[in-house]
């Protein structure tokens, strides 16, 4: 998530990439 605050806009992840990362994190947290 810290990458979203990069000073250079070209280094910031796209919204699509952010949403994919969040989905992966959510899926990992639901694993029992």
Explain what you see.
With 32 residues, this protein is mostly helical. It contains one helix and no strands. The longest helix has 15 residues. The N and C termini lie far apart (25 Å).
Concise description?
With 32 residues, the protein is an all-alpha fold. The chain has one helix and no strands.
Note the gap between the termini. 25 Å
Q: What is the succession of H and E elements?
A: H
Average pLDDT metric: 83
Helix content: 40-55%
Largest sheet: none
**Overall 3D shape:** elongated
Gyration radius from CA atoms, angstroms: 12 Å
Could you list some keywords that capture this structure?
mainly alpha; 0% strand; elongated
Walk me through the topology:
Blueprint: H1 15-29
């Amino acid at each position: 998530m810290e990458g979203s605050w990069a000073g250079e806009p070209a280094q910031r992840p796209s919204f699509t990439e952010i949403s994919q990362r969040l989905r992966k994190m959510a899926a990992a947290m639901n694993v029992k």
